[in-house]
Design a protein that fits this description.
With 149 residues, the chain is mainly alpha-helical. The protein contains three helices and no strands.
């Protein structure tokens, strides 16, 4: 008999518990819960914005570095082309041509370094010398004039 009573008591308790699940909260409790949820949401959005800003800053640095690498490769390539063209000359003309190619390369490197330094100092991404790019894009490399004969 005790088990029947226990079963009835457990069943009644279960129904009472289930009936209380959908009970409305007091308006003050609801207002406090809503305020907490808004504060949590605002904090989460602020955290995500900070993370996005960090990623954008990192991407700008990566783009600047990539542009510098491209320009350095372009300068080296232009120099190599100029030196090869000098090979068609003989004697002093060849030496003067190669010297001119070396000076042009050093000048281009110095210009690139100056531009990259000024971009780093101002905190902005830079484009390659002699190029322009819309914000958020990678500039196309500029061609330079090499000594020719």
């Amino acid at each position: 008999m005790n088990t029947k009573m226990l079963a009835v008591l457990l069943t009644a308790t279960s129904f009472a518990t289930l009936a209380a699940c959908n009970k409305a909260e007091a308006p003050a409790d609801t207002a406090a819960d809503v305020a907490d949820a808004r504060a949590d949401a605002a904090e989460n959005v602020a955290d995500e914005r900070r993370d996005a800003a960090d990623e954008i800053g990192s991407a700008a640095t990566d783009i600047t570095s990539a542009n510098q690498d491209v320009e350095e490769a372009r300068i080296a390539g232009d120099h190599k082309i100029a030196v090869e063209k000098c090979e068609a000359l003989a004697g002093e003309a060849q030496k003067a041509c190669k010297d001119s190619a070396d000076v042009a390369m050093e000048s281009a490197k110095a210009n690139l370094q100056a531009q990259m330094s000024s971009g780093a100092a101002s905190g902005t991404a830079t484009t390659a010398p002699g190029t322009t790019a819309a914000p958020g894009t990678i500039a196309a490399p500029a061609s330079t004039t090499s000594p020719t004969r």
